[in-house]
Design brief:
Number of helices: 8
Helix content: 55-70%
Number of strands: 0
Distance between the termini: 18 Å
């Protein structure tokens, strides 16, 4: 589904669009095409960087990240948010996750893993009608978005 939107061209978007600007009239990219390409690349990285978590750990993480908005450069704060939720709210007990195992997994995650985790959380909280398992399948590319049940 395509739709038109207004877009504030922030400095990161401006850097991405330099490819369009550099090509001038002969550019192989349109503005929307370039943004779509970058988004596809981002989702490919997210798909390939999904952390290996149990459903209990996913639920704990998603619950902990409810309402959290972090910039990509602060991805390490994902760990802080989840640790705080487990320590202060006993969130791991609610979902049946082992806090030591989850903490170990979080500590070993790369920036790409943390950004993928944050992406899953943002998509989940934007549409809570989705089951976590279905959302993970969709992001992992095992089901297409229009196959939503």
């Amino acid at each position: 589904m395509s739709r038109k939107v207004s877009l504030y061209v922030s400095p990161p978007i401006e850097r991405v669009l330099k490819v369009v600007d550099a090509g001038g009239e002969n550019s192989a990219h349109s503005v929307s095409g370039r943004i779509a390409d970058v988004c596809e690349r981002y989702m490919t990285i997210a798909r390939e960087s999904l952390p290996d978590l149990s459903m209990e750990e996913w639920h704990t993480c998603l619950d902990a990240l409810n309402g959290v908005s972090l910039q990509p450069h602060s991805a390490k704060y994902v760990i802080v948010e989840i640790h705080d939720a487990m320590r202060l709210n006993n969130l791991h007990a609610k979902w049946g996750a082992d806090p030591e195992v989850l903490s170990e997994k979080l500590s070993s995650m790369t920036t790409a893993n943390l950004i993928a985790l944050l992406e899953v959380a943002e998509q989940f909280w934007a549409d809570t009608s989705l089951e976590v398992e279905h959302l993970l399948d969709r992001i992992a590319g095992r089901v297409k978005e229009h196959e939503r049940s």
